[in-house]
């Protein structure tokens, strides 16, 4: 892999991490008044998968989609402004953290009903196929989504028509606070997708290069007419299901488990690897950090200076 | 404007013609639903469409109502105009998440950045022992949802024109077809035309009572209106409401300000009905114009049983409408006029068959 590409991956992960850390730090100010599901610890999946896409490829997300949105090129100012409920937000204040969109970046929309956007990505792929466009659509979802009927309906139709869609399962083992073993039998998720007729694989979702490599293969296959692809990526959610904090006090997972999860940091792992390859200097990291910090600072200034929408606007834009 | 060529065709043929012409005019229109390309062709409303427009635009589909609704939403967000068909309205309950949470809200929650131009055709399957899960008329459930449009035309002319308007609309439109209308003929222009959504149509005029009717109940209301005039000299307005959301309250208010009396005839269950909603609007906005209490006629608050013996009398029709009109005007139910009225509005034929030619099986 080229050095510039590796630095770009590192920088993209670090940017998502730092954005969410600032969100978490400022959440207690009670100016961002919406539920917020942070993806800290899971950045490699968003960055690796979106790294394999063209600008005109489209992505659908979930309730936990800050990372997907930013990795696909979604506008940071518009996202932060949305969290602050401002008119300049990507949804004009109608959506909050759980509804993100940036059509210019190919980010088609994120919504918080589990499984809700999965068939939409299939529909986008169906439209691309019917119109003869080479666009690939990608949908991110969690392990609990695999328990929803709609994903199996979507996999079936995608396989039936060999649609150019890539399903990305972020398996962080938890649905809110309920562990995977309490929800699904002991069998790999991706093998069920395979049984639906998809090409499926699994990998380490905390290794950004592995994610990128699996995603590239899947996206190329989908684009070249080889049918829908499924990637299951193992990862770990660092913070509480919803909100800015760590949640050790809730006791649904053990301290050693949390510690081992936090040790397996996708950003630090990648940085260590870069250092081993003698590709890394502390000045490169400092440069990334300072650029990102300046961008984030500007985004928060933009958001907080932006106008507040009025209650009179709430009834508008119901019908196109 | 040149005069349109006219033809007499059935409601089912008008639906088919509307889709066919919309597909010819706009290559982004696609049709999908279980059975759209089989030999029964959804009561012949999709007959020959695949032959004419190709298998890439007319799809049979897996029996995945929710997933496929989502697929259509995703396609609609990506430049297609899907027309989805379910053989019974009861089946779309499986798709309520996609319809209510995604289709209805996408334009609003994403601040107008993208809309969902799709039509969901739903068929009310009354009669022939269809029973509790194949015969419901659930328009009120959809009408409750901001962001959806809900239409239910009565006449073939409107079926074609409103279906074309629904396909051209940039919002999700729930298009409800009562199968007891399918065989009824009407004069329908051969050309491509639109009938705007959201406007009621006055089909019979009078100053005694306003009868606002939905879908098939308009047919029953017209039978009652003609008989009332001929036998008792009672003249009523019959408004074919045509759309459930947005509800054309203004047309009803105009009529009620003339008649002072309101009867609403609905095909749905009584509790939480659109009829109740319409009465609320009139009570709120024109209470002083009402000379007596408004009434509604709807299906009883229990499912329809399958047995033809047990289902007898379940559906109110022209008889009930005529009786309630007489109640509202305070007419005496006696004499030769009343006897003639009773004869004219009495149910004709078997109560469980939409028409004489019907022999089942579904």
Please give a structural write-up.
- The complex is a heterodimer of chains A (320) and B (362).
- Chain A has 320 residues and is α/β, with parallel strands linked by helices.
- Chain A contains eleven helices and eight strands.
- Helix content of chain A is 44%, strand content 12%.
- In chain A, helix 6 (149-160) links the parallel strand 3 and strand 4 (165-171).
- In chain A, helix 1 packs across helix 11, helix 2 (43-50) packs parallel to helix 8 (208-223) and helix 4 packs across helix 11 (282-305).
- The mean pLDDT of chain B is 96.
- With 362 residues, chain B is of the alpha/beta class.
- Helix content of chain B is 37%, strand content 19%.
- Chain B has a seven-stranded mixed β-sheet with strand order 3-2-4-5-7-6-12, sandwiched between helices. Chain B has a five-stranded mixed β-sheet with strand order 9-11-10-13-14, with helices on both faces.
- The N and C termini of chain B lie far apart (43 Å).
- The A-B interface holds A 58, 60, 89-95, 99, 101, 103, 108-109, 111, 113, 116-128, 130-131, 137, 149-150, 152-154, 156-157, 160, 317-320 and B 30, 56-57, 61-62, 64, 66-80, 97-98, 101-102, 106-115, 117, 146-147, 149, 170-171.
**Multimerization state:** heterodimer
Instruction: Indicate the percent of residues in helices of chain B.
Output: 25-40%
What is the CATH top level name of the largest domain in chain B? Alpha Beta
CATH homologous superfamily heading of the largest domain in chain B = Thiamin diphosphate (ThDP)-binding fold, Pyr/PP domains
Question: Roughly what fraction of the amino acids of chain B lie in strands?
Answer: 15-25%
Task: State the end-to-end CA separation of chain A.
Answer: 46 Å
Order of helices and strands of chain A: HHEHHEHEHEEEHEHEHHH
Summed over residues and divided by their number, the pLDDT of chain B gives a mean of 96
**Gyration radius of chain A, in Å:** 19 Å
What is the correct CATH architecture of the largest domain in chain B? 3-Layer(aba) Sandwich
* Count of DSSP strands of chain B: 14
Major sheet size, sense and barrel closure of chain B? 7 strands, mixed
The total tally of domains of chain A equals: 1
Distance between the termini of chain B: 43 Å
What series of H and E elements makes up the topology of chain B?
A: EHEHHEHEHHEHEHEEEEHEEHEHEHHH
Cα radius of gyration of chain B in angstroms: 20 Å
Largest interface: A-B, 44 and 41 residues
Mean pLDDT of chain A: 97
Strand content of chain A: 5-15%
